[in-house]
Design a protein that fits this description.
five-stranded mixed sheet; mainly beta; Methylamine Dehydrogenase, Chain H; 5 helices; signal; DUF4374 domain-containing protein
């Protein structure tokens, strides 16, 4: 499930619409997601993934259900998204985002006949989601299985990214290579989606080279994901998932010496001039999986988590100069006293505090940790962990005011919403989440 390859088909540029020039963050300061206002009247949307063929695979579609904040916090409230919820468009697990006030849900369908179709829903409470009569399909550019996130710019822009058609420079037209091998590269797409006008606002496609020495060894960018806008609002930082192929055979290698963690930086809003930056602290990917993986913090720096890191997950820091700060070393293995920590999903909560959903030691067993990015410490949150709690497909951690909302259910078992105070770390048990065999809850929006 975590290693699905994306495809891309290309069309002309006739769909391109307006420029993004002038997009500003309505919060005008950090550009971070947490609401400076608690928005007590917002809806809390709970999302659940339906089993396809295997318990926990999430391949049967996505259901959503909304409640008030008061109900979300009430342990006497019972939510059954699978019985009473609304099925959003998606053949498999939908890629959901919500507006900052919780009254609008954004979705891009993932795979199937409508894969790549963007939809916008008005949240009316319970299982009532009214699809607005506005759609756009980005599959011609970013495939029917797009990876996208909403920028923290006041619900103005979504960014979809993709890499496709990875091939050697000397790929033969017949059976004989046309030149000496030099690299494997794919065609990268970075596409901006205007969430309010519901149109493609711009896109760029290019190959993104690594160093000549790295490419000669067969290293290549396999996937892009989880873009974030820097504080100056003039650069996008995009996470990468790296791959290595055998230069002699073209076969993908699973056991190889990893390069330092890499991000791609492009100009914004033009989406031009891709540049690769490399960390000497982390040695994993930083594309995340199904949620944001890089966050602009109050100090103006961007922090990102690593996955598949040969030295366990790290939190990396990118300074306002858009380069890695390699003096910042935050190993989650060291901070948690664990081995092979893997960050499934995480969220910056403000004032240097973040919350991470993670596993360790090669197990899928999930845990929650409170991170202090300034002190570079991590503490496991005291919650009722049990077998089957797997955050591998988790998408949405909601921060609203001082509250951090997490859906906490083992596969096929009932669970609860838990609310953590981002200032004190205090935990409150919220609404009950009623489950069904093989299903699991994957986020709060």
């Amino acid at each position: 499930m975590k290693k699905q390859v994306l495809n891309l088909s290309l069309l002309g540029s006739f769909l391109i619409a307006v420029s993004l020039t002038g997009c500003q963050d309505k919060n005008s300061g950090t550009g971070t997601d947490p609401d400076p206002v608690a928005n007590e009247d917002r809806w809390i949307t709970v999302a659940g993934a339906v089993m396809g063929t295997t318990p926990g695979d999430g391949n049967g579609g996505t259901m959503v259900y909304s409640v008030s904040k008061a109900d979300a916090k009430n342990p006497n409230t019972s939510i059954s998204v699978y019985d009473n919820g609304f099925a959003v468009k998606s053949n498999r697990t939908a890629r959901l985002q919500s507006s900052e006030d919780g009254h609008t849900l954004f979705n891009i369908a993932y795979t199937g006949d409508n894969g790549g179709e963007f939809s916008r829903y008005k949240v009316n409470g319970a299982g009532s989601y009214a699809q607005e009569d506005v759609t756009v399909n980005i599959s011609q550019y970013a495939s029917t299985s797009p990876r996208w996130v909403k920028l923290f710019d006041g619900d103005k822009t979504g960014i979809a990214v993709n890499v496709a058609n990875i091939a050697a420079n000397n790929a033969p037209a017949g059976s004989t290579p046309t030149a000496p091998f030099a690299y494997y590269r794919g065609t990268a797409t970075v596409l901006a989606l205007d969430l309010q006008k519901v149109l493609i606002a711009g896109y760029k496609q290019y190959q993104i080279p690594l160093s000549a020495a790295e490419e000669l060894q067969g290293h290549a960018i396999f996937r892009l994901d989880a873009p974030v806008l820097n504080q100056a609002k003039n650069k996008l930082i995009i996470g990468t998932w790296m791959q290595k192929r055998n230069p002699a055979t073209g076969l993908t290698e699973t056991n190889f010496t990893r390069l330092g963690s890499k991000s791609v930086i492009v100009d914004y809003p033009s989406l031009e001039n891709p540049k690769v930056i490399t960390s000497t602290v982390g040695f994993g990917d930083n594309s995340g999986y199904r949620s944001h993986n890089s966050f602009l913090a109050n100090d103006g720096a961007i922090y990102q988590a690593t996955q598949r890191d040969s030295k366990g997950s790290h939190i990396l820091k990118i300074g306002q100069n858009n380069e890695y700060d390699n003096s910042y070393v935050f190993s989650l293995d060291a901070a948690l006293g664990a081995k092979n920590v893997y960050v499934d999903s995480w969220k910056y909560a403000g004032n240097g505090i973040a919350y991470a959903l993670y596993s360790q030691d090669g197990s899928d067993q999930g845990f929650v940790a409170r991170l202090d990015l300034n002190a570079k410490t991590a503490t496991r949150v005291d919650l009722p962990y049990e077998a089957g709690l797997d955050f591998g497909q988790y998408q949405g951690i909601l921060v609203s005011g001082d509250d951090v909302y997490i859906a906490f259910t083992p596969v096929g078992k009932d669970g609860n919403i838990y609310i953590i105070n981002r200032q004190t770390g205090a935990v409150t048990k919220g609404a009950k989440l009623v489950n069904k065999a093989g299903n699991h809850y994957i986020g709060i929006f």
